[in-house]
Known about the structure:
By secondary structure, the chain is mainly beta.
Amino acid sequence: MKRLSILISTIVFFTFTSCDVEKTEEGEAPELDVEVEAESGEMPEYEVDWAKVKVDTKTKTIKVPKVVIVQEEKEVEVPYVNVDMPDSDSEIEERNLMVEAEVHDTMHKLEIEKVYASEKNLYVVARLSSTDQNIDDNAVRVSDQLVLNAPEDLNIIKYIIGEKPSGEYNNQYSYIADDNTLASKVGDAQVIYQR
């Protein structure tokens, strides 16, 4: 029995002295230092001293409006209006006068019908009318133009007769309801061009 108690004592002694157990440890949370750099129109780049951050794009299927603009170059006859004012000291300048409208749902045609002159004002008058051709949900821009060779200091005022289509694009011109409204706008101006 004495041997057994010495053996147990020796085992217990070696067990406690051979293990070096530390019950406490110290640590710190990482520090973050974030700098964001981005040029106009670019994705930002993040510089982080703790973790690597990557900003990228992801491909997803979404619905976006589709705009189709078809321009083709072809030779056409464009009306040419030459205005020579005897009392004007201004230089003569050649300009393309264009009227445009963006239409939806149904196709339209836009034609410059008349140009009126009164003192230093030229009134370019176009007419917008529906052709009843369905264009679904597409937006189509229709236009017409003429070449004006006239003194550079003339004021050019553009009117479109017809119903104003919806959309911001169509705010650049004055839309009027009919010929009676036009008569009140141009007053006693003389017609210098008529289609």
